[in-house]
Amino acid sequence: MVMGFSSPRIEYIRTRPLNGNELEVAFQSLCKENCASDCQFTEINWMEVSGSLDKTSESSLKKTTDLSGIRVQGVRFLSLSTFSRVVFGIGRGGNNGGNKKLSLRDVMEYIQKKECHRIVVMAGAGLSTPSGIPDFRSPGSGLYNNLQQYNIPYPEAIFELSYFFQNPKPFFRLAKELYPGNYRPNYAHYFLRLLFDKGLLLRLYTQNIDGLERVAGIPPDKLVEAHGTFASATCTVCRRSYAGEDFRGDVMTDKIPKCPVCTGVVKPDIIFFGEDLPHRFFLHLTDFPRADLLFIIGTSLEVEPFASLAGAVRGSVPRVLINRDLVGPFAVQSQQNDVAELGDVISGVEKVVELLGWKEELQELIKKEREKLDTKKK
């Protein structure tokens, strides 16, 4: 038992609000198979755990370095993934079973030998940059300059609800640029599509809102769009749901989309600061413990709770980082089965494809899919 208290009080400290049901589902999913007795969820912001916590101790809780997510009776702050690892023994904490440091070739042989069946991918902005997606936060970029006409106090204000309700025009200017159809998937997107075609992709968790994963042919049920999507939209007044395409014409002609029922502003289902995470985000509670390989592509691993997912796979599971820089656990304490392929994302993916022997197959897929897009555009 946890030293000093037999029924620890656990508080979930959120970077974004969750409704009570989502939080309860997340917590109970963790507790269901790891407590000797039932756990009781009592309030939105705290929970009493009456189940056995034999796998932990007060000292181990104090040693955690993760500073967001869950607090165990004031002992320390834990992220959801750290909580599940430290308290329940789920997640990182092991190695590949030997003293050998894995190489990229080793991991690709693991795939080739068909010992790997459930690959989870975490992707960030670096996945889409080669497609020409502009960074609205970078001075000098065309999109940044276009947005300055609105006298935005700071770039992130575009994704704040209070600012949106005051002036939705800057967001819809950004939406016009990023709306699906303006850009095309790149080599890395189609590599992920090939993982799906081969039955290897368990789930793709993306921070991107450009929808290029869908355009590449990865079905929605294989996607968790952690920061939302343009594929659907919701009226900010009556809460009616619409298909994102219903308002494409308005967005492209610089009109503010209005609900045909109540005339309220219709906002694409992009997650703004202070909004609930998508329900599908909580698939990570079952996806990551099941994964037998994790790819992390083009992300800084700075935004929570997405960043903590990198630590949610089992300790024996290889993690492959394809990124410009070392980030997250790779920068702090890399493990024996962590592999980092640093540099340009496309170059890193090309090396992976070469080692897998999939080069010709991927090139054929890209050719076929681009021909489809050309035909559709006509």
UniProtKB/TrEMBL annotation:
Keywords: Metal-binding, NAD, Transferase, Zinc. It holds the Pfam family SIR2. The keyword Ribosomal protein does not apply. InterPro entries: DHS-like_NAD/FAD-binding_dom (IPR029035), NAD-dep_sirtuin_deacylases (IPR050134), Sirtuin (IPR003000), Sirtuin_cat_small_dom_sf (IPR026591), Ssirtuin_cat_dom (IPR026590). The active site is at 227 (proton acceptor). Zn(2+) binds at residues 235, 238, 259, 262. Residues 97-359 form the Deacetylase sirtuin-type domain. One of its GO terms (molecular function) is NAD+ binding. GO terms for cellular component: nucleus. This is NAD-dependent protein deacetylase sirtuin-3 mitochondrial.
